[in-house]
Write a structure and sequence with these properties.
The complex is a heterodimer of chains A (about 800) and B (about 450).
Chain A lengths: L1 H20 L6 E5 L3 E3 L6 E2 L1 E6 L2 E4 L5 E4 L5 E3 L4 E4 L3 E9 L2 E9 L10 H11 L26 H10 L15 H6 L16 H11 L12 E7 L2 E3 L5 E3 L1 E6 L4 E3 L5 E4 L5 E2 L5 E4 L4 E9 L2 E9 L14 H13 L9 H13 L5 H9 L5 H11 L1 H14 L4 H21 L4 H9 L3 E2 L7 H5 L3 H13 L5 H4 L9 H8 L5 E5 L5 E5 L5 E2 L6 E2 L18 H9 L6 H14 L19 H13 L4 H10 L26 E2 L2 H12 L25 H5 L19 H9 L1 H7 L5 H6 L5 H13 L5 H14 L3 H13 L2 H4 E2 L1
Parallel strand pairs in A: 2-10, 12-20
Antiparallel strand pairs in A: 1-4, 3-8, 4-5, 6-9, 7-8, 9-10, 11-14, 13-18, 14-15, 16-19, 17-18, 19-20, 21-23, 22-23, 24-25, 26-27
Chain B lengths: L17 H12 L4 H10 L8 E7 L17 H4 L4 E3 L6 E3 L3 H4 L5 E7 L6 H10 L16 H9 L9 E4 L24 E2 L31 H16 L10 H15 L1 H7 L6 H7 L3 H15 L3 E6 L8 H25 L6 E7 L2 E2 L17 E2 L3 E7 L6 E3 L1 E2 L6 E3 L4 H11 L7 E3 L5 E3 L12
Parallel strand pairs in B: 1-7, 1-8, 4-12, 5-6, 5-7
Antiparallel strand pairs in B: 2-3, 4-11, 8-11, 9-10, 13-14, 15-16
Helix pairs in contact in B: 1-7, 5-13, 8-9, 9-11, 10-11, 11-12
The chains are: A alpha+beta (about 800), B alpha/beta (about 450).
Chain lengths: ~800, ~450
């Protein structure tokens, strides 16, 4: 695999060299940083040399020739990393493509090195070597009795574990080289984790020096890192090329030092960009965008890389509203052409399944297909959003998220939430009011209200992280136990949010029912220090509870305020994801700087639009559905086939368990019978999430154990395939004596008319000529026995991907 | 049931019916190639060892004293009514109830010192099956993926035409389906595939119709496969007319599952995997002609055909009363099935690639009680401090006892182990890195195991 990838890169280097040699007048070489300063024996400065010609930029850090003026002062390795050899002031000449540039070099601190800092040098080293990762010593239980905090968020504890515990064997001050840290890390002694630190590497030398200096917790010279910077932070880069990153830490005194080799790199799209521990990014042949997360100590930074197609297209989708403009901008930037617009049949099926979770009937399809009104799609959307199934379907979706699990919140509680949801969704209550009602609910959990949600959220901590994930799209859970590894959230932020829910409890009333009661809460304690943390919204410093008994009211006000950075964004992205099959930010409830949107201007425009329409979700939904982007085909063309995140084509969606079962029941005219329920109820109306049903079980109905939509599995399985192809239940529907197949077979309809009817009811379209020819064979083979043929055709169509997916 | 009406397809000049030809064409399409499979496995980060696992799940909690950790020297109220017998490995003794397994002790590793400390069925089962404390009787949802689900996810099926993870008749723990055998945050596609979901939770003395051919593959039993074949080719032809529909290949997985499902219904491979009609009745007799014996035999057929992980459900071990008869009868039935399985695997040369794991959610109280209310016949209660687990085959070094409990089988006095150590050993034998992580519903990376390391003496 690796060898195959290397070939185009080498070819590219050769062509680049020729091209550099041709001496383009406008070509320009830039070197970063403009001066090298190394102040300790283990320091190393990455150089990034860039060749810019017009809009084309290339990283030539590994092609350039490095010539130190005084070779005894510094050494530059093949990767462009400068290492100190002796104190002194000198120069470094960099030659590339016939040009040469000289930068100043200063080396200090070698003869008398500054002491090593545990917090700022040893911790990142342990993180980089993965010693404190979740699979090794960083896990809650540690590993073989040696436990470090995850990613080194807890300096004191880690220091104690290394230096004070383990009977001085881990760090041996008397004989530094006998320290287990060195012996195990280098696999000199047997180590379950294997070789983590090469002997005689700069990391090894740094560790050894720290131990020799007495392994102090606080060194005489602490430099607190306040931010890290990455260069380049945003680039357009050619497929098949590479880019060296330069990561610089800035400390509280403003001093800068290179941490390129010490930082961690994580690509959010490894199919587009892969990373190396050295900070070298390798771009694949797949056009698209990737964001590389860079982590050092508790700081994070991001490098966004755009890889355009080699032969870019400038075709845009027709512009029906602002969505298409932003999608078009992005597609043109990447050179990806959009797919074709869909026909009426596909639109009818797609939009019906998406909005109301219900398949159109054959009559619906006939009518819509023959309607000549040019505005018929808009009118269809209006009709669908007014249908009771819209409220049923979205109430089901929200009941999942609000965890209306009959076991957890009692059947009455689940019914109460579902009814409340249905009525709020039917009346199209503005979303901010809807959330405010949920957040501040009090009273009996059996009532028609969202009170049961707070029964499902057992503790203030569960409430805080659930509310954060569901309504803000912020997964704060990690910060309960440690600093969030890819976010700025700390345990302090976590405790601050928990403080809003400490006054909430579920009280048992004398009549045996339960009620959500809000009392004035208290500040939650910091999980590690035990100090109370002032309750406050994420990213804020305080909140005012004067005259307030239910702290959640302050939370609701903060969340729904116009300037809240998360609230509108989270719901805009969630609804987008429902209709387009993927969030602009994905996963949808993981909004953070380090998991960027694939189209930020679009997401911002959607957020503004949502606020403009005052959180009217039906209006917002209409805007999405009327865009050309929503109405693009799921059939990819040769040039957009590998795009899955820029909406150049629609993404086929699996149907939720309930929707699929309703569809099967509807097309066969045999309603599903739910135990204890009157006949005729559709699955999307069944509030009972524990209704025993093999169909629901294998098609991934969630048990409502979390507020994440991801709990609803949409992965096909062999059990699903087998059930649809060969189960007594499905077969019974097909051959039911009052079912569609029998009815059609015994009707005076011609075979062709029967085929029309089957296709319209399942796929909302008429069969093609080829399909007619093929399916006529079924009739020919079965002879007189038309019902066998109709069943066979029905079975075949119902098991096509076109039926099983919403395309 | 699918009622396939016999068709009368015209024979062509070669004497092959049109439908047969269609069927052959269809089967030619089925399945991934082995190359594809290995590529997928390579991407999943697994060294394919080609090994399978059969988990014999003793739901309810088997006694350690009446099985792999007898204490013949203990006072009678601990020792129980049964003697210890020697095995084919000098110095290793088991309960007299395990006379069949005693002949295979050279293949078996008896781990006597597993301890999780809980007497809660839910907590114990969750711990044994996922390697983690998570559920309790008060909050009994599964919290982490099961052993079988991880193996299905990471190693996949050995034969792509078969499910990776199968429950026989249906995977279960503490009355829940799949209980703690499910996929949890890996997704329900890593739940076990149950071969018989209508009749399950069967005791060895179940008198109803005996297992033979799973009803989900019922068309296997219909003499005329023609209609199934023709339907199937009709469907694939329809899908193929519209090939461009799936140009992005997002629906590939469904395609593969449909092909596997149809080949299970139509092809000989699934017959081989799940149909006991192909077995000699004498062999069925050796395993025990009852649900436990029959499903254990079916499990052997399944792994032979390429299923990766099979759970054989042997429930009804919660004998607070009636140690002497009910509990003992369970052991005899289990022992017969497992003894026959080890024989059979050895004869077929499958032992090195098939790991057999026998366990339940906990052990039982060393001191015998006076029975439970209403049934005053002595039994044993729940005990989470001394659990015996048996492992055999799959490359394990047999003829060993790992760990030891005190003289009354109350708690480990040597090599105390956690359930995670057992699971780590299974993962290790299958070449699976149990330090790797998968994201949970909140996006946190959760390692396969949080505690435990493979038992080095065994591998």
């Amino acid at each position: 695999m690796r060898r195959m990838k290397r070939r185009p890169t080498q070819a590219w280097i050769v062509s680049l060299l020729c091209w550099l040699g041709s001496g383009s007048a406008r070509a320009q070489i830039t070197i970063s940083p403009p001066a090298v300063g190394l102040d300790r024996p283990e320091a190393a400065q990455q150089l990034v040399v860039t060749h810019q010609s017009g809009t084309q930029r290339r990283d030539v850090s590994r092609i350039a020739k490095y010539r130190p003026a005084v070779p005894t002062t510094i050494r530059v390795d093949a990767d462009g990393l400068v290492h100190p050899l002796a104190d002194g002031v000198s120069e470094l000449t960099i030659e590339v493509g016939g040009e040469s540039h000289t930068i100043p070099v200063t080396v200090t601190g070698l003869s008398r090195p500054a002491p090593v800092s545990f917090q700022h040098e040893i911790q990142p080293l342990l993180t980089k070597a993965r010693c404190n990762s979740g699979g090794c010593h960083g896990k809650a239980e540690g590993q073989n009795g040696f436990k470090l905090s995850l990613f080194g968020f807890d300096n004191e504890t880690d220091y104690d574990a290394l230096v004070k515990e383990g009977r001085s064997r881990r760090i041996n001050l008397a004989t530094p080289d006998a320290s287990l840290l060195l012996l195990k890390g280098t696999a000199t002694m047997p180590h379950g984790g294997g070789l983590k630190i090469e002997r005689d590497s700069p990391s090894f030398e740094l560790l050894r020096r720290w131990i020799r200096e007495g392994a102090p917790f606080v060194s005489t010279e602490e430099r607190h890192v306040v931010k890290i910077e990455v260069e380049p932070a945003e680039i357009v880069i050619q497929p098949g090329s590479t880019q060296q990153l330069l990561v610089t830490a800035v400390d509280s005194t403003g001093r800068r030092h290179c941490v390129t080799t010490a930082a961690d790199y994580i690509s959010n799209a490894p199919q587009i960009v892969t990373t190396s521990p050295r900070g070298l990014m390798t771009v694949s042949d797949v056009p698209g965008e990737a964001a590389v997360l860079i982590r050092y100590l508790d700081q994070v930074a991001l490098c966004r890389m755009t890889v355009p197609r080699p032969n870019p297209s400038s075709v845009r989708p027709a512009e029906k509203n602002f969505i298409d403009r932003h999608v078009g901008d992005k597609l043109v930037r990447l050179g990806i052409p959009p797919s074709q617009p869909i026909d009426d049949a596909t639109f009818l099926r797609r939009v019906s399944l998406d909005t109301i979770g219900t398949l159109p009937t054959a009559d619906d399809a006939r009518q819509f297909l023959s309607d000549a009104d040019p505005e018929k799609r808009r009118r269809l959307v209006e009709r669908l959003l007014a249908r009771p199934e819209y409220a049923d379907y979205w109430a089901m979706k929200w009941a999942d998220l609000l965890r209306a699990d009959r076991i957890k919140v009692t059947p009455q509680g689940a019914v109460g939430v579902t009814r409340w949801l249905r009525s709020k969704i039917a009346s199209n209550q503005p979303y901010d009011e809807f959330v405010r009602e949920i957040l501040t609910v009090q009273g009996p959990i059996q009532s028609e209200s969202p009170a049961a949600f707070f029964k499902a959220l057992d503790t203030p901590e569960v409430a805080a992280r659930s509310v954060s994930q569901l309504f803000l799209g912020v997964r704060i859970e990690c910060a309960q136990c440690h600093h969030h590894p890819s976010e700025r959230w700390s345990q302090e932020d976590y405790a601050g949010l928990v403080g809003f829910f400490t006054g909430i409890s579920v009280k048992r009333l004398p009549n045996g029912t339960e009620s959500v009661v809000a009392k004035s809460g208290s500040d939650h304690k910091h999980p590690r220090t035990g100090e109370p943390v002032t309750a406050r919204g994420l990213g804020t410093t305080s909140a005012d509870f004067t005259g307030i008994t239910d702290r959640r009211q302050i939370l609701a006000t903060w969340m729904t305020a116009a300037d809240n950075p998360f609230f509108a964004r989270a719901i805009a992205n969630r609804i987008w994801s429902h209709y387009f099959g993927r969030g602009l930010v994905d996963p949808i409830d993981d909004l953070r700087a380090t998991n960027p949107s694939t189209n930020e201007p679009l997401l911002e425009a959607l957020v503004s639009h949502l606020k403009e329409v005052r959180y009217d979700l039906k209006a917002f939904t209409t805007t999405l559905l009327m865009s050309q982007t929503y109405q693009l085909s799921s059939i990819a063309n040769a040039d957009n086939i590998s795009d899955f995140q820029n909406f150049s084509h629609a993404l086929p969606k699996t149907m939720p368990a309930e929707v699929l079962l309703d569809a099967v029941s509807q097309v066969t005219s045999v309603p599903e019978k739910f135990n204890g329920w009157p006949e005729g109820y559709r699955s999307i109306q069944v509030w009972d999430n524990r209704m025993p049903s093999y169909f629901f079980k294998i098609f991934g109905r969630p048990v409502r154990a979390s507020v994440c939509e991801c709990e609803r599995s949409n992965q096909p399985s062999i059990s699903q395939a087998l059930h649809l192809l060969n189960s007594p239940e499905i077969q019974a529907k097909l051959s039911h004596k009052r079912g569609t197949a029998r009815r059609l077979a015994s009707s005076p309809m011609t075979n062709n008319e029967i085929l029309d009817q089957i296709y319209l009811s399942t796929l909302c379209r008429y069969p093609t000529a080829a399909e007619r020819t093929l399916l006529q064979q079924a009739f020919a083979v079965s002879g007189e026995d038309r019902s066998t043929a109709v069943e066979d055709v029905f079975w075949s169509v119902m098991n096509t991907k076109e039926f099983l997916y919403n395309q | 049931m699918l009622q396939f009406v016999s068709g009368h397809g015209d024979k062509n000049c070669q004497g092959v019916t049109r439908r047969t030809a269609l069927k052959a064409g269809f089967l030619g399409l089925s399945g991934l190639t082995l190359g594809d499979l290995f590529r997928l496995q390579a991407e999943a980060g697994v060294t394919n060892t080609g090994k399978s696992v059969i988990l014999i799940w003793l739901d309810g909690g088997p006694s350690q004293l009446e099985s792999y950790d007898p204490k013949p020297e203990a006072p009678r109220e601990f020792r129980g009514p049964f003697d210890a017998i020697s095995t084919n490995v000098p110095g290793i003794f088991v309960s007299e109830l395990l006379s069949c397994e005693a002949r295979h002790a050279d293949k078996m590793a008896l781990v006597r010192s597993v301890q999780h400390g809980t007497g809660d069925h839910f907590a114990g089962a969750h711990w044994m099956l996922t390697g983690r404390f998570g559920a309790t009787s008060a909050n009994s949802e599964q919290k982490y993926p099961s052993l079988g689900s991880y193996i299905a996810k990471i190693a996949g099926p050995k034969d792509p035409g078969l499910p990776a993870y199968v429950g026989m008749p249906a995977a279960e723990s503490v009355y829940k389906y799949p209980g703690y055998m499910g996929g949890s945050h890996l997704g329900n596609d890593f739940d076990p595939f149950d071969v018989e979901r209508s009749i399950c939770y069967l005791s060895h003395s179940y008198q109803g119709p005996q297992a033979g051919k799973p009803s989900c593959l019922a068309s296997l039993t219909v003499p005329d496969l023609d209609r199934a074949g023709s339907r199937s080719s009709l469907r694939t032809s329809l899908d193929r007319l519209d090939r461009h529909v799936d140009s992005t290949r997002l629906m590939d997985t469904m395609d593969q599952h449909q092909r596997s499902a149809m080949s299970m219904i139509l092809s000989g491979r699934a017959k081989a995997a799940f149909n006991l009609d192909f077995e000699d009745p004498k062999l069925i007799g050796k395993y025990g002609d009852n649900p436990w014996g029959r499903y254990t035999l079916m499990a052997r057929r399944a792994v032979e055909a390429g299923v990766r992980f099979v759970t054989v459900d042997m429930p009804h071990w919660d004998n607070h009363s009636d140690l002497e008869h009910a509990h003992a009868a369970n052991f005899r039935a289990m022992d017969r099935a497992v003894g026959a399985l080890l024989d059979d695997l050895e004869v077929r040369g499958l032992l090195d690639e098939t790991l057999v794991l026998v366990m339940g959610e906990f052990g039982r109280t060393p001191r015998i009680n006076t029975g439970q209310p209403g049934i005053p016949i002595p039994g044993r209660d729940h005990w989470g401090d001394a659990i015996s687990v048996m492992m055999a085959g799959g490359g394990i070094r047999g003829g060993q006892v790992i760990g030891a409990t005190n003289s009354k089988a109350e708690f480990p006095i040597d090599r105390a182990l956690k359930p995670g150590d057992i699971l780590a050993t299974v993962y290790h034998l299958l070449g699976i890195d149990y330090h790797q992580s998968f994201n949970d519903f909140a996006g946190r990376p959760i390692p396969v195991l949080a505690e435990g390391e493979h038992i080095r003496e065994l591998v």
